[in-house]
Amino acid sequence: MKIAISGSEGQLGLSWQHYLKGDLDDTEAKSSTILPGYYESKVYNSSDSEAIYWLPLNRAQFDLCVPESIQTTLDRFQPDVLINTAAYTKVDQAEDEQELAFECNAKGVAALGKACMERDIRLVHYSTDYVFPGLEEDALKYPSGYPESAPTDPVNIYGETKWKGEQELLSLESNVLILRVSWLCSAYGNNFLKTILKRAKSHGQLKVVNDQIGVPTFTEDVIEQTLQLLQLNAQGVLHLGSKGIISWHDFAKEILEFADINVPIEAVSSDFFPSKAVRPKFSKLSTSKLENLGIKVWPWQRACKRVVSSLKDI
Ligand SMILES: NC(=O)c1ccc[n+]([C@@H]2O[C@H](COP(=O)([O-])OP(=O)(O)OC[C@H]3O[C@@H](n4cnc5c(N)ncnc54)[C@H](OP(=O)(O)O)[C@@H]3O)[C@@H](O)[C@H]2O)c1
User: Fold this and answer.
1) Ligand 1, atom nearest to 180 Cα
2) What spacing in Å lies between the alpha carbon of 189 and ligand 1's midpoint?
């Protein structure tokens, strides 16, 4: 199976690269001799031990705002599956750069969907809990998290652009898998966990909001769930994630506890950190549909401990 990963330099893209490399470092990752540009993965498609070849695509090779770059790259490398982790993700800036955010997350994604459909390439596309309103009262209405069928009502412009991208793909009626995720964390790129560890070391004390709740979701879990869904030939919209629910404040406390760092963390309300874009008060996505497909959903702490210990020297 030939997998291309767009957005390869972002948090999820880097996580895919590290996952598929296994325990090899950059210099050891083996280029395929039969498939130029691709690497041989140490991970196998577990159902039939089919080899996985993977290809990282950065923005210079694959720009969502330049449809020709998508077409040229797909024609050149002819992947079986395109995992799209690329997106305009600047949540606050999107309020001022609406046109650019739509260009990338809606128009660009539509062009990507069409290009994949025309070439018979399976498309896996990541979306977000921000397609939902994220209201505080929704925590009572959906105690296990928003199901896939809950009415969407994007919380901000970024959410609206991602929702529009979903709609564009669904209108194609092709082999598309849209995977919504929330609160992504990992050892790579930028994320809350890394910010907390760095700030705790540099500032010695922290203030973190306690009125937004959700589930930290580690990219290794997201990748394993994605690979299993590919094996099942799943299509349509699905929520990925982990078990649990927690506020950002309590999550920060747990991160520092796992890291054995003892600095005070003050709980503050969202008003303490005014932001251009509204943030959801409730971000949990239900993983019932995923579990009903036989896919294991782990408590978020499992991957968190591993990632924290890998970041000891951050
Ligand atoms: N992070 C989260 O908590 C979270 C939560 C919910 C959903 N998601 C979704 O999960 C996916 C992965 O997120 P992430 O955390 O990996 O985001 P990220 O770290 O911001 O990575 C996004 C990548 O996309 C690239 N990109 C931006 N504009 C592009 C364009 N026009 N063409 C091609 N590439 C472009 C970025 O490149 P530059 O660095 O050059 O801009 C970056 O490498 C996205 O679909 C995001 O919407 C993330």
Assistant:
1) 7
2) 10
- Note whether residue 44 is domain-resident: yes
Looking at the annotation, which residues are catalytic? 158
Ligand 1 atom closest to Cα of residue 65: 31
Q: Is pLDDT of 114 > 60?
A: yes
The count of domains in the chain is: 1
Residue 277 resides in a domain: no
* pLDDT, tens only, 168-196: 999 998 889 999 999 999 999 999 999 99
Asked whether 209 lines ligand 1 (CB < 6 A), one says no
Q: Which residue has the higher pLDDT, 297 or 35?
A: 297
87 lines ligand 1 (CB under 6 A): yes
- 88 Cβ closer than 6 Å to some ligand 1 atom: yes
Question: What is the distance in A from the centroid of ligand 1 to the CA of 294?
Answer: 28
Q: Residue 144's domain spans which residues?
A: 2-184+218-241+283-296
Q: How many angstroms separate the alpha carbon of residue 11 from the centre of ligand 1?
A: 7
Residue 75 in any domain: the answer is yes
Q: Is the pLDDT of residue 274 over 70?
A: yes
pLDDT at 294 over 60: yes
User: Does any domain span residue 256?
Assistant: no
Give the chain as a 3 state SS string.
CEEEEECCCCHHHHHHHHHHHCCCCCCCCCECCCCCCCEEEEEEECCCCEEEEEEEECCCCCCCCCHHHHHHHHHHHCCCEEEECCCCCCCCHHHCCHHHHHHHHHHHHHHHHHHHHHCCCEEEEEEEHHHCCCCCCHHHHCCCCECCCCCCCCCCHHHHHHHHHHHHHHCCCCCEEEEEECCEECCCCCCHHHHHHHHHHHHCCEEEECCCEECCEEHHHHHHHHHHHHHCCCCEEEECCCECCEEHHHHHHHHHHHHCCCCCEEEECHHHCCCCCCCCCECCECCHHHHHCCCCCCEHHHHHHHHHHHCCCC
Q: What is the CATH number of the domain that holds 169?
A: 3.40.50.720
